[in-house]
């Protein structure tokens, strides 16, 4: 008699359904555990969770992505992966309970989800081929077999007829358990599966952790040569000594990170190559990391801003970057800007993780310090910020300029190609908007009456900040004291001593850039080209 027919003769009471659900969870854990060492043999991005997560990110509407960044910040990737695991756990519970009645159907369900992971892995932009499907396939087969075996222990013996007084026996916890079921076999199989999954998963994670050792070693060996065009010393008065204000130079560990990479790429600098090609490129080129190190390097202080930065948000930071002037490299390849008859008006940079970012060629070659950065704050780029090479372009939001882990530059036109973010509703061109932020006092602070220092930062990259003003409640605008300017490509700190009276107050800030344009009070969302509006905080003076 077939398994399906045998199973249908068995009454699936809820205790057995619960054990079936437990079997589903164990099968799911086994699938993920077995996939770990296979992932280590293929590549980290082929992990089922990472592949499905990446596909989910790509399919998520821009507004939802922006909401996630706004509410979860740089933890958005952790939240996504946690959410995927929760969904998988629920599905495993359902499949396990289903397998009690339809044993083969439950196992087939596990295989189906393995197929979803496999398809997601091989369809990723950075997929290296069919081998990316192996972790999902191998893990799903292991999970399906385990579920089939565990449920078999629950259906090994028929249940007595419903009217029989001996239909059940009391379980140790006082719940009704199936009469005659293979208790010993189930417990041994479940415990063995759990232990084996833990060991295999741990081994897999260890192998994955060691996989990037070549990249780590290559970064440790990098010695950045002295720049041929060093940055000027930061003026002593550029950084104010005021508690609570953002430091003038943002440490790498505190620098914001907003990207779609669920696994930070670890690229070996010794094997890294950059290809420059495309429309209007008369002399295509391929460059190694050492090739770039041998060129004249420039060193510049540049403030970067993410387009997902809400008014008053944290996604802006200032660092000292070292790299190769991008305009020189493009000119060497025969590229000319559109204003000089160049055929391409868009530069598409591609990352090793498949991200594509489009930048206006005219902006990259207009004399600003656009660079292929190799270093940040005196050391090689951190992996999270693009090692070995990334783009840095002052005055443009990151989604149209700051390609991390770059491997390819293609010259094309805006009419012929839409990069990643443009396909999702964001603008093709996005200069950084003039912005300002109150760092101290913080929202809902309760300072004491008397002199309270209001302070923060303002930015208008490639234009510079000319003035910052603060308003208390509905009073007149008061001009704040500006810290010394480093360059027009960096933010400026500002401060205003306030004689605070008791009660609730609203503090508002606005900035004026060097073109004379005053920061607008009109509130706009981050989509499609950056948020705008005045930043305000509410405080209560005691």
Into which percent range does the helicity of residues fall?
Answer: 25-40%
Which structural category fits the helices and strands? Answer: alpha+beta
Number of helices: 12
Biggest sheet, open or closed, and with what strands and sense? 5 strands, mixed
CA-based shape: globular
Give a quick precis of the structure.
With 542 residues, the protein is α+β, with helices and mostly antiparallel strands.
Tell me what you see in this structure.
Helices cover 33% and strands 22% of the residues. The chain is of the alpha+beta class and 542 residues long. Residues 3-10 and 157-179 have low confidence and may be disordered.
Secondary structure: elements and pairs:
Blueprint: H1 3-8, H2 14-42, H3 48-59, H4 62-72, H5 76-101, H6 103-122, H7 134-154, E1 168-170, E2 176-178, H8 183-211, H9 213-220, E3 273-278, E4 285-288, H10 289-293, E5 297-305, E6 316-325, H11 326-332, E7 346-351, E8 356-360, H12 361-364, E9 371-376, E10 379-380, E11 390-392, E12 406-412, E13 435-440, E14 450-459, E15 465-472, E16 477-479, E17 481-482, E18 492-500, E19 503-513, E20 535-541
Parallel strand pairs: 3-12
Antiparallel strand pairs: 1-2, 3-4, 5-6, 6-9, 7-8, 7-12, 9-10, 9-11, 13-14, 14-18, 15-16, 15-19, 17-18, 19-20
Helix pairs in contact: 2-5, 2-7, 2-8, 3-5, 3-6, 5-6, 6-7, 7-8
């Amino acid at each position: 008699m077939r398994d399906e027919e045998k199973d249908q003769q068995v009454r699936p009471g809820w205790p057995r359904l619960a054990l079936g659900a437990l079997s589903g969870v164990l099968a799911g854990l086994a699938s993920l555990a077995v996939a770990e060492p296979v992932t280590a043999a293929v590549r980290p991005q082929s992990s089922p969770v990472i592949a499905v997560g990446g596909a989910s990110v790509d399919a998520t509407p821009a507004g939802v992505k922006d909401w996630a960044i706004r509410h979860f910040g740089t933890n958005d990737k952790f939240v996504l992966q946690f959410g995927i695991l929760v969904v998988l756990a629920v599905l495993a519970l359902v499949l396990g309970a289903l397998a009690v009645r339809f044993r083969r159907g439950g196992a087939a369900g596990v295989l189906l989800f393995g197929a979803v992971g496999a398809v997601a892995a091989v369809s990723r932009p950075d997929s290296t081929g069919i081998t990316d499907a192996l972790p999902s396939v191998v893990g799903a087969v292991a999970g399906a077999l385990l579920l089939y075996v565990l449920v078999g222990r629950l259906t090994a013996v028929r249940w007595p007829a419903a009217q029989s007084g001996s239909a059940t026996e009391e379980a140790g916890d006082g719940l009704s358990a199936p009469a005659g079921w293979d208790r010993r076999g189930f417990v041994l199989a479940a415990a063995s599966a759990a232990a084996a999954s833990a060991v295999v998963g741990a081994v897999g994670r260890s192998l994955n952790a060691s996989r990037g050792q070549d990249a780590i070693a290559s970064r440790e060996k990098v010695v950045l040569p002295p720049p041929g065009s060093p940055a000027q010393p930061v003026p002593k008065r550029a950084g104010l000594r005021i508690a609570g204000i953002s430091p003038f130079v943002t440490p790498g560990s505190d620098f914001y990170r907003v990207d779609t990479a669920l696994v930070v790429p670890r690229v070996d600098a010794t094997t890294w190559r950059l290809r420059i090609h495309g429309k209007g490129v008369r002399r295509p080129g391929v460059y190694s990391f050492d090739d770039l190190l041998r060129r004249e390097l420039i060193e510049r202080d540049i403030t970067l801003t993410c387009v997902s930065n809400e008014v008053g948000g944290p996604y802006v930071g200032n660092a000292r970057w070292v790299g190769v002037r991008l305009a020189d490299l493009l000119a060497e390849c025969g590229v000319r800007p559109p204003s000089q008859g160049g055929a391409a008006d868009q530069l598409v940079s591609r990352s090793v993780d498949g991200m594509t970012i489009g930048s206006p060629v005219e902006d990259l070659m207009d004399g600003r310090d656009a660079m292929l950065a190799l270093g940040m704050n005196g050391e090689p780029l951190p992996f999270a910020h693009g090692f070995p090479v990334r783009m840095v372009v002052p005055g443009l939001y990151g989604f149209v300029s700051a390609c991390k882990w770059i491997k390819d530059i293609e010259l094309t036109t805006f009419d012929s190609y839409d990069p990643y973010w443009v396909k999702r509703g964001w603008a093709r061109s996005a200069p950084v908007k003039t912005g300002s932020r109150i760092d101290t006092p913080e929202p809902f602070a309760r300072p004491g009456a008397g002199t309270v220092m209001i302070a923060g930062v303002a930015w208008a990259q490639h234009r510079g900040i000319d003035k910052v003003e603060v308003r208390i409640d509905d009073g007149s605008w008061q001009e704040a004291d500006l810290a010394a300017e480093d360059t027009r490509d960096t933010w400026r700190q500002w401060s205003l001593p306030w004689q605070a009276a008791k009660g609730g107050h609203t503090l508002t800030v606005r900035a004026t850039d060097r073109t004379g344009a005053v920061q607008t009070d009109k509130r706009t969302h981050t989509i499609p080209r950056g948020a705008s509006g005045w930043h305000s905080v509410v405080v209560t003076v005691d």
